[in-house]
């Protein structure tokens, strides 16, 4: 973003120090800012990238934190329409940046003094801080693509790792931690910049499917490039959706359990129970029931239990704990 279209470019580029003095963050801490972050300082974890601040907390949340990594400050107010447009896009882009920058939001109605001392006369306004100093910024609700460019400019491209790879890792981490909304925001931001990213299509599709939107997941899968429609990540999601649909059509698992209690050799009941168990997330039990059929009668249903177990492996992923455990048991059955 050039100084021509960045109202803060000239001010922050040449006279950043005057703002630090004016806002009174001086003293020993200001003297340290010239030294930069301490050696080995790590970026904030994915779950600590966005927060609200106050006048009292501004020095710690922004000035001190910006010595570790760049911090964007979003000055906003509840009555500001463009703020409501910009802030969600800003949050999404910061999450997608995978920790290169942090975002701190300040409501100027509740905390007007900082904005006043920085000379901010209209909102939304976003100012980037580095090493305790304001270095760049923009005003108004700019397009999402320009937000990404601004974050890349301020935060850099990381340690040589592709930004998409960093964002995918952050999304996977959020999903594993149970933060589906953050994961979805990151995947959505990736697809806005690189719509053919297979891992993002599969990741967002899985989130939609888990949320009960199978139709949305299918529509998203259809956007994959023709040459990559059979990519392993997409195939795994399709297999998972197919298995869930088959399990949903089977009925009450209690019926299968009763049939097995009466006749442990009822392979069809055991097979159907395994499908329901898989749909409910009990992967180990599902695998054990299919393995029990294979052990008792490998020829049942034309080796159908083994074929179904291989489908489960595809849906779970080759490195899943249940896949690895069941594959070891299967190998023991087949080759012992």
TrEMBL record:
Keywords: Disulfide bond, Electron transport, Redox-active center, Transport. InterPro entries: Thioredoxin, Thioredoxin-like_sf, Thioredoxin_CS, Thioredoxin_domain, TPR-like_helical_dom_sf. The keyword Transport applies. GO terms for molecular function: protein-disulfide reductase activity. Residues 38-156 form the Thioredoxin domain. One of its GO terms (cellular component) is cytosol. GO terms for biological process: cell redox homeostasis; response to stress. Gene3D superfamilies: Glutaredoxin, Tetratricopeptide repeat domain. Belongs to the thioredoxin family. NCBIfam families: thioredoxin. This is Thioredoxin. It comes from Mesorhizobium neociceri. The lineage of its organism: Bacteria, Pseudomonadati, Pseudomonadota, Alphaproteobacteria, Hyphomicrobiales. The gene is trxA.
């Amino acid at each position: 973003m050039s100084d021509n279209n960045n109202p803060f470019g000239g001010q922050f580029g040449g006279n950043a120090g005057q703002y630090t003095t004016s806002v009174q963050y001086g003293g020993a801490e200001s003297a340290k800012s010239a030294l930069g972050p301490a050696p080995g300082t790590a970026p904030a974890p994915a779950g600590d990238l966005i927060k609200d601040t106050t006048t009292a907390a501004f020095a710690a949340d922004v000035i001190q934190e910006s010595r570790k990594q760049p911090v964007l400050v979003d000055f906003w107010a509840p009555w500001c329409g463009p703020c409501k447009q910009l802030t969600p896009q800003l949050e999404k882009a910061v999450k997608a940046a995978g920790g290169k920058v942090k975002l701190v939001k300040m409501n100027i109605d509740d905390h007007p003094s900082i904005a006043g001392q920085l000379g901010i006369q209209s909102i939304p306004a976003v100012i980037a801080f580095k090493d305790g100093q304001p270095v760049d910024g923009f005003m108004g609700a700019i397009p999402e693509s320009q937000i990404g460019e601004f974050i890349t400019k301020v935060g850099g491209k990381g340690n040589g790792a592709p930004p998409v790879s960093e964002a995918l890792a952050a999304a996977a981490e959020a999903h594993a931690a149970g933060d589906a909304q953050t994961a979805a925001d990151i995947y959505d931001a990736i697809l806005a910049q690189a719509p053919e990213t297979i891992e993002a299509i599969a990741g967002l599709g899985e989130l939609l499917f888990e949320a009960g939107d199978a139709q949305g997941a299918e529509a998203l899968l259809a956007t994959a490039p023709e040459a990559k429609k059979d990519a392993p990540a997409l195939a795994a999601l399709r297999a998972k959706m197919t298995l869930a649909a088959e399990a949903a059509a089977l009925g009450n698992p209690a019926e299968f359990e009763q049939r097995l209690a009466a006749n442990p050799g009822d392979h069809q009941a055991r097979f159907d129970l395994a499908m329901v168990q898989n749909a409910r997330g009990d992967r180990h039990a599902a695998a054990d029931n299919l393995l029990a059929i294979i052990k008792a009668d490998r020829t049942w249903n034309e080796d159908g239990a083994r074929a179904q177990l291989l489908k489960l492996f595809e849906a779970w992923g080759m490195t899943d704990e249940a896949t690895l455990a069941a594959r070891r048991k299967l190998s023991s059955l087949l080759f012992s």
